[in-house]
Amino acid sequence: MRKNQLPRFVRTGIVSLAKDSVMASAFSHAFVAAALGSAYARQPMPWHFWALSITCSILPDADVIGFVLGLPYKSLWGHRGLSHSLCFAFVLSLCVVSLAFRKHTAFSWPWWSYVLYFFVVTASHGVLDAMTNGGRGIAFLAPFDATRYFFPWRPVHVSPISIRAFFSARGRQILGSELVFIWLPTILLWAAVRIYRRR
What we know:
Blueprint: H1 8-20, E1 22-23, H2 26-40, H3 47-58, H4 65-69, H5 86-100, H6 109-129, E2 159-160, H7 163-166, H8 169-198
Antiparallel strand pairs: 1-2
Helix pairs in contact: 2-3, 2-6, 2-8, 3-5, 3-6, 5-6
Protein backbone atom coordinates (compact mmCIF):
# COMPACT_ATOMS: atom_id res chain seq x y z
CA MET A 1 0.00 0.00 0.00
CA ARG A 2 1.34 3.40 -0.93
CA LYS A 3 2.13 5.89 1.78
CA ASN A 4 -0.98 7.79 2.95
CA GLN A 5 -3.21 5.63 0.74
CA LEU A 6 -6.33 4.34 2.44
CA PRO A 7 -7.21 0.65 2.21
CA ARG A 8 -9.47 -0.12 -0.74
CA PHE A 9 -12.47 -1.14 1.38
CA VAL A 10 -12.28 2.21 3.24
CA ARG A 11 -12.06 4.22 0.00
CA THR A 12 -14.97 2.25 -1.46
CA GLY A 13 -16.96 2.80 1.70
CA ILE A 14 -16.38 6.55 1.66
CA VAL A 15 -17.61 6.77 -1.93
CA SER A 16 -20.67 4.73 -1.01
CA LEU A 17 -21.25 6.92 2.03
CA ALA A 18 -21.22 10.09 -0.03
CA LYS A 19 -23.44 8.61 -2.72
CA ASP A 20 -25.99 6.46 -0.90
CA SER A 21 -26.49 7.65 2.67
CA VAL A 22 -29.54 9.84 2.86
CA MET A 23 -31.91 10.78 5.65
CA ALA A 24 -33.72 13.63 7.29
CA SER A 25 -31.12 16.15 8.51
CA ALA A 26 -29.67 16.04 12.00
CA PHE A 27 -31.08 19.54 12.55
CA SER A 28 -34.63 18.27 12.16
CA HIS A 29 -34.05 15.22 14.33
CA ALA A 30 -32.67 17.45 17.09
CA PHE A 31 -35.48 19.96 16.70
CA VAL A 32 -38.14 17.28 17.06
CA ALA A 33 -36.35 15.93 20.15
CA ALA A 34 -36.28 19.39 21.73
CA ALA A 35 -39.98 19.86 21.00
CA LEU A 36 -40.85 16.44 22.44
CA GLY A 37 -38.79 17.24 25.53
CA SER A 38 -40.53 20.57 25.99
CA ALA A 39 -43.93 18.90 25.64
CA TYR A 40 -42.96 16.13 28.07
CA ALA A 41 -41.39 18.29 30.77
CA ARG A 42 -43.77 19.75 33.34
CA GLN A 43 -40.90 21.35 35.26
CA PRO A 44 -37.37 22.59 34.48
CA MET A 45 -35.24 19.67 33.43
CA PRO A 46 -31.49 19.17 34.03
CA TRP A 47 -29.05 19.78 31.19
CA HIS A 48 -28.37 16.08 30.71
CA PHE A 49 -32.06 15.48 29.94
CA TRP A 50 -31.78 17.78 26.91
CA ALA A 51 -28.37 16.48 25.89
CA LEU A 52 -29.57 12.87 26.00
CA SER A 53 -32.77 13.76 24.15
CA ILE A 54 -30.86 15.22 21.23
CA THR A 55 -28.28 12.42 21.31
CA CYS A 56 -30.96 9.72 21.20
CA SER A 57 -32.67 11.48 18.30
CA ILE A 58 -29.57 11.42 16.09
CA LEU A 59 -27.75 8.31 17.39
CA PRO A 60 -29.46 5.88 14.96
CA ASP A 61 -27.45 7.45 12.13
CA ALA A 62 -24.24 6.19 13.72
CA ASP A 63 -24.89 3.20 11.46
CA VAL A 64 -23.41 5.12 8.52
CA ILE A 65 -20.07 3.77 9.69
CA GLY A 66 -21.23 0.62 7.91
CA PHE A 67 -20.55 2.29 4.57
CA VAL A 68 -16.93 2.85 5.53
CA LEU A 69 -16.63 -0.72 6.80
CA GLY A 70 -18.05 -2.08 3.57
CA LEU A 71 -21.32 -3.40 4.97
CA PRO A 72 -24.13 -3.73 2.39
CA TYR A 73 -26.83 -1.09 2.70
CA LYS A 74 -29.46 -3.85 2.95
CA SER A 75 -27.60 -5.54 5.81
CA LEU A 76 -29.22 -5.69 9.25
CA TRP A 77 -26.26 -3.61 10.43
CA GLY A 78 -26.43 -1.27 7.44
CA HIS A 79 -27.86 2.23 7.25
CA ARG A 80 -31.51 2.40 8.35
CA GLY A 81 -31.27 -1.14 9.66
CA LEU A 82 -31.22 -2.32 13.27
CA SER A 83 -30.28 1.06 14.75
CA HIS A 84 -33.47 2.56 13.27
CA SER A 85 -35.72 -0.17 14.67
CA LEU A 86 -38.28 0.04 17.46
CA CYS A 87 -36.34 -2.65 19.32
CA PHE A 88 -33.20 -0.51 19.30
CA ALA A 89 -35.22 2.50 20.51
CA PHE A 90 -36.60 0.48 23.41
CA VAL A 91 -33.26 -1.00 24.47
CA LEU A 92 -31.56 2.39 24.22
CA SER A 93 -34.28 4.04 26.30
CA LEU A 94 -33.86 1.39 29.01
CA CYS A 95 -30.10 1.98 29.08
CA VAL A 96 -30.41 5.77 29.17
CA VAL A 97 -32.93 5.82 32.01
CA SER A 98 -31.13 3.13 34.02
CA LEU A 99 -27.80 4.99 33.82
CA ALA A 100 -28.81 8.66 33.81
CA PHE A 101 -31.94 8.78 35.98
CA ARG A 102 -31.00 6.53 38.87
CA LYS A 103 -32.86 8.60 41.43
CA HIS A 104 -36.09 7.07 40.16
CA THR A 105 -36.91 3.60 41.42
CA ALA A 106 -36.64 1.04 38.63
CA PHE A 107 -40.01 0.05 37.17
CA SER A 108 -41.86 2.79 39.05
CA TRP A 109 -44.23 5.04 37.10
CA PRO A 110 -41.73 7.95 36.83
CA TRP A 111 -39.09 5.49 35.64
CA TRP A 112 -41.37 4.04 32.94
CA SER A 113 -42.41 7.56 32.00
CA TYR A 114 -38.79 8.39 31.17
CA VAL A 115 -38.38 5.10 29.31
CA LEU A 116 -41.44 5.86 27.18
CA TYR A 117 -40.22 9.38 26.51
CA PHE A 118 -36.75 8.34 25.35
CA PHE A 119 -38.27 5.50 23.34
CA VAL A 120 -40.45 7.99 21.46
CA VAL A 121 -37.53 10.39 20.94
CA THR A 122 -35.31 7.63 19.52
CA ALA A 123 -38.08 6.07 17.43
CA SER A 124 -38.91 9.48 15.97
CA HIS A 125 -35.69 9.21 13.96
CA GLY A 126 -36.95 6.25 11.95
CA VAL A 127 -40.37 7.84 11.59
CA LEU A 128 -38.90 10.97 10.02
CA ASP A 129 -36.60 8.96 7.75
CA ALA A 130 -39.60 6.91 6.58
CA MET A 131 -41.06 10.18 5.27
CA THR A 132 -38.08 10.89 3.01
CA ASN A 133 -38.15 10.41 -0.75
CA GLY A 134 -34.93 8.46 -1.21
CA GLY A 135 -32.64 5.76 0.09
CA ARG A 136 -33.87 2.45 1.45
CA GLY A 137 -36.77 2.01 3.83
CA ILE A 138 -36.60 1.65 7.60
CA ALA A 139 -36.22 -1.74 9.31
CA PHE A 140 -38.74 -0.88 12.03
CA LEU A 141 -39.18 -4.51 13.10
CA ALA A 142 -35.50 -5.56 13.11
CA PRO A 143 -34.01 -7.87 14.26
CA PHE A 144 -37.19 -9.98 13.98
CA ASP A 145 -38.02 -8.88 10.45
CA ALA A 146 -35.54 -7.28 8.03
CA THR A 147 -38.25 -5.77 5.82
CA ARG A 148 -37.65 -2.10 5.05
CA TYR A 149 -40.63 0.25 5.27
CA PHE A 150 -41.54 3.70 3.96
CA PHE A 151 -44.72 5.65 4.65
CA PRO A 152 -47.07 6.02 1.68
CA TRP A 153 -46.63 9.81 1.89
CA ARG A 154 -42.98 10.85 1.55
CA PRO A 155 -42.77 14.63 1.17
CA VAL A 156 -39.37 15.22 2.84
CA HIS A 157 -36.31 15.54 0.61
CA VAL A 158 -33.46 13.30 1.68
CA SER A 159 -30.45 14.97 3.26
CA PRO A 160 -26.84 14.10 2.35
CA ILE A 161 -24.32 13.43 5.10
CA SER A 162 -21.75 15.65 3.41
CA ILE A 163 -21.64 19.05 5.13
CA ARG A 164 -20.52 20.72 1.89
CA ALA A 165 -23.47 19.22 0.01
CA PHE A 166 -25.88 20.25 2.74
CA PHE A 167 -24.87 23.93 2.54
CA SER A 168 -25.63 24.16 -1.17
CA ALA A 169 -28.64 24.83 -3.38
CA ARG A 170 -29.75 21.26 -2.77
CA GLY A 171 -29.28 21.75 0.95
CA ARG A 172 -31.53 24.81 0.93
CA GLN A 173 -34.18 22.80 -0.91
CA ILE A 174 -33.92 20.07 1.71
CA LEU A 175 -34.24 22.54 4.57
CA GLY A 176 -37.26 24.08 2.87
CA SER A 177 -39.07 20.74 2.72
CA GLU A 178 -38.15 19.96 6.33
CA LEU A 179 -39.39 23.35 7.51
CA VAL A 180 -42.76 22.74 5.88
CA PHE A 181 -43.25 19.04 6.61
CA ILE A 182 -41.34 18.56 9.89
CA TRP A 183 -40.68 21.82 11.73
CA LEU A 184 -44.06 23.48 11.17
CA PRO A 185 -46.19 20.45 12.18
CA THR A 186 -43.91 19.91 15.20
CA ILE A 187 -44.37 23.53 16.30
CA LEU A 188 -48.14 23.25 15.91
CA LEU A 189 -48.28 20.04 17.97
CA TRP A 190 -46.03 21.58 20.63
CA ALA A 191 -48.26 24.67 20.80
CA ALA A 192 -51.38 22.48 21.07
CA VAL A 193 -49.86 20.61 24.03
CA ARG A 194 -48.91 23.85 25.77
CA ILE A 195 -52.37 25.32 25.27
CA TYR A 196 -54.03 22.15 26.54
CA ARG A 197 -51.94 22.21 29.71
CA ARG A 198 -52.95 25.78 30.46
CA ARG A 199 -56.65 24.95 30.41
